[in-house]
Design goal:
- The complex is a heterodimer.
- By secondary structure, chain A is of the alpha/beta class.
- Chain A has a single domain, classed as Rossmann fold.
- Chain A is built from 10 helices and 10 strands.
- Chain B is mainly α.
- Chain B contains 13 helices and no strands.
- The chains are: A alpha/beta, B mainly alpha.
Chain lengths: 241, 318
Amino acid sequence: MLTIQNLHVHYGAIHALKGVNLHVKNGEIVALIGSNGAGKTTLVRTISGLIRPSEGRVEYETPGTSVDLAREPTHRIVAHGVAQVPEGRMIFANLSVKENLELGAYSRSDRKNFSSDMAEVFRLFPRLKERLGQNAGTLSGGEQQMLAIGRALMSRPSLLLLDEPSLGIAPALVQQIFKTLVEINRAGTTIFLIEQDAYLALETADRAYVLETGEITMEGKATDLLKDPKVRQAYLGEMAT
Amino acid sequence: MRRLLLPLLTIALLLIGNWLFNGYLNAYYLQILVYIGINIILSTSLNLINGYTGQFNLGHAGFMAVGAYASAAFSVYAHPSLQHWLAFIPSTALDPALFLLSLAIGAFAAVLAGLAIGLPTLRLRGDYLAIATLGFGEIVLVIINNMDSVGGARGFSDIPGYSNFFWVFLFAALTVYVVGRMTRSSKGLAFMAIRDDEIAALSLGISNTRVKVTAFVIGAAFAGLGGGLYAHYLNYLHVNSFGFLKSVDFVVMVVLGGMGNLWGVVAATALLTMLPELLRGFAEWRMILYSLLIIVTMLLRSRGVSVKQWFFKARAAS
């Protein structure tokens, strides 16, 4: 579904991504783990068109079409079925929960299934329904994350990109949100998950990649990576023996 | 039928008001009232740009000037020959039609100016956009000042006086209605989304440039319209009426009324238009008091004078 080939991104003189190759297959949950500054957010922003690569392709395929997202205008990418849940949630604090969800459906021309989609979001996150008329800025961190995910789902994406969904959220809510992500995936949405909490990400994902200073250093099934001594040492806090 | 009720009622009330005020109200008070209406058009349209969309436009008086001079030039140069050719139409019907045409031309000229300035500069953010629009306002004035056909530095006189209470408040009501409807529609939420977070808006598939230019152009159109009404009320235009401080006045109205607060800005506009007149009794202390009142209001109510809040507080108290 998503194939990234030889992706290079520069910030001025800084070479942030150095030839990244990865792919996400239809129906999978793929995780990308790595420490601060590895280039995780750069990668997700390149996929969603907020940053332009200096080299490489971001091939996105759905039955019948194939586009290079690196060459599409940013606002068209959502219409192709790629929705992003940005890092730090980025909800519209001065708008109500309902208005935030409405904006999620902005790129859709059909309003037909609008209310049933909203009902689906409320089924996944009942908390949002209770807060419907409230200003989004008054929600707790976890609730804001739920709203950001719900907002992205309103565009009916085939591929959902999540950038650090566990960031700054109470552990109990994190568990709940990740359970919901699995549920969303079972319902047919492919998920590409960027996460610093390696254990959580590897528990949730089918496959995973490890990104270190702009390069993919490991890849494989999530269960295998979870057992890998190098991963355990670098990302799961296990002492070297 | 019910959809027509409110507009018809508004027009009827405005006609009655027009007849009443023109006949019985002191010309000084009437003029203040008309200025309130014109300022509401200007501040509400600026509210769309600055308040709802969060783009700092410091050149709103420039758009007003473009609209004022374009519509006035059309009235002065084209109306006599049009009136000559269309002499078979009674002037009670022809004059308002020509006036509306002049206003439309003023608004259209402002739209062109809005596009010309908006397309290249809306990529700038915050302070940079403010400076670019400030520059635009100054350029407009310099050009007008050197155009002899519209009077240049002498000012543009003998503009037909078509404007009155009715037209001004009709268009003020229209402005408030259009801006209110636009920002409440689901597509209009994009304006506020861009104000709150541009990156998040982009990630939802909102074309930031298009939405910003839309806000800018519609805001400019109403500013041009307000300028046209102003020109045909005063019968005389001079570049000094559209200086930088005029733009600042509108910004103050929007900030004091609350950015993105529809009725708050209308209320603040009425207040700020009347205040300098009410303070006339204080002679040379007038502008100091005016400024002090603005500072105090900002300290006490930094999020604007919310009409809704007042109303509900008053109801809760009673």
